Structure formats: C-alpha cells, structure tokens
C-alpha cells in the first residue's frame, strides 16, 4: 500500500528506514531457529520488492544488510547458515539482474567491506563455518541454470576467492599482532591488492593509520591519511 512512499528518493527516506530497521532488528537480536526462517523469507520478499533501494539509491541499506547476513553465515546452527547463504546469493543475483546482467559490483564491494569490518570483531571467529557458507554460495552459482551462460558464476567465484584471501591475510595478522612492523606490512599488501577498488583500499588504509597512531608513529599515520585524501580526490576528479 505504501510502495510509492517507500521508494521515494530511491528508498532513502524516513519511512523506508523505519521499515528496513525493523527487518534488520530481527537479525541483530537473537531469534529462535523457527522465527529466523520467517525473517529470512520476509527479507527475500523485501529485496525482490524494493531492488532500487538496495542497488540504486544510497549504499547504506545494502551495506547494513550484507554485514548482518555475513554474521549469520558464521552461526553455529546449520539451518541459519544455509538460509543466510541463500539470502546473500539472492542479493548478488538480484543486483546482477538489476544492472541488466552486467555486474553486481555494489553487493560485491559491500560484502568485502563487511568481511573486513567483521574481522576486527570476533564475529568471524567461526572460520570453518564461514568457509562452509562460502562453499554453499559457490554451489548455488554453479547449479543456477538461468545464469549458466552469463558472467555471474565466475564473478561469484572471484568474490569468494577474494574473501578467502582477506581471511588468510587476517589470520597471518593475528599471528603477528605483537609485531607492529609485520602487521603493517600485511595491511599494506592488502591495501595494495585493492588498488582498483577505492572504497576497500580506503578501509585498509584507515585501519593502518589506526595502528600507527596506537604505536605513536604519527608521521606514518599522516602518510596513510594523505593517501586516503589522494584517493578521494582522484575519485571525485574522475566523477
């Protein structure tokens, strides 16, 4: 009944925020297994009904949803992991369809950014469970008949590969957390691997700057921020 109001300004309006926040609250606060099944079903309908709010308007909704779904992908309950993996796959697929089967870059980016944020949290401590979820997503992409002839399956594979790289690098970081130089080195190589993706490169440069400040290396931290400023300036100049 309120579709027009909800979609005004590509979903960036107070009404949509309230409706979306209610949906998100169910994922943020622990629910029973039975309740979660309905929450995931409701979210699937929500994404299908309002694609432009996720894939065209501001990035907030897509970012917040990716973050919460990824947290569910590490759940101890296998049915929740399966549902979360299916929802994440649906989000990528809908994004791909929304761009007329060109790319799902927005969701790709938001997933990697969410993984980078979750690593700092203890939320990705269930590493093997998360790997299982990545496997489920890959299997969905490989067995999705209508998508066979498109670039979609290989893009999904590329995304899961990138996530594994980030996870491996952060596992190494954990080993070297007492060795600030080595830690910074690893972060720097991660930032470099995302040279083509300004948003992600910025995420890792910010993270590096924080470590430098913590260690009292202020000129190094300043260099990171100069790099971030240059990235933003370059990006704005291109636009």
Automatic annotation (TrEMBL):
GO molecular function: guanyl-nucleotide exchange factor activity
Biological processes, Gene Ontology terms: positive regulation of filopodium assembly; small GTPase-mediated signal transduction
Pfam families xref list: DHR-2_Lobe_A
Gene3D superfamilies: 1.25.40.410
Protein origin, superkingdom: Eukaryota
Keywords for this protein: Guanine-nucleotide releasing factor
Residue span(s) of domain DOCKER: 192-239
Family: Belongs to the DOCK family.
Protein name: DOC11 protein
